[in-house]
Specification:
By secondary structure, this protein is mostly helical. The protein is globular and about 60 Å long. Helix 5 crosses helix 6. It has seven helices and two strands. Helices cover 54% and strands 3% of the residues. It has helices at residues 2-7, 23-30, 46-53, 66-76, 89-101, 103-119, 128-140, and strands at 36-37, 58-59. Helix 3 links the parallel strand 1 and strand 2. The chain has a two-stranded parallel ribbon with strand order 1-2.
Length: 141
Amino acid sequence: LLAKAAEAGVDPARIVFSTFFEERFHVAAKGTCDLFLDAHPYSAHGTAADALFAGLPMLNFPSDTMVSRVGASLAFASPQGTLLTARTFGEYLTIAHHLIGTKKGAAALAQYRKRALGEVFASPAFDSRRWADGYLTGLRN
């Protein structure tokens, strides 16, 4: 992976492999990353939620299966919205290269993170009070 990154012009020092973390450090560790590349065709589920909660931008590429759309659904309900959703695999690669390979892309990621961290608790994906109220209303009706 490091050799492929270097071939693509990405400094291998930017890639960090980690082991398991204690639960209390799990989400915080994701906050140290620059970009979460959601897998395709099986997108992230809980890991996507953790990453978005930590303010980590997530590039996703949903398609016609439910398992490919979970990460995008979480992103849509987070402060990120549809900002980093690719429509084709080629677009996914182009966006990823721009975000991690250019100064303008890195600046955009930093700006997004700053905004996302301030809005995370008010977003539908992470507003626990709103979710609980809606759930209780559903049970009562």
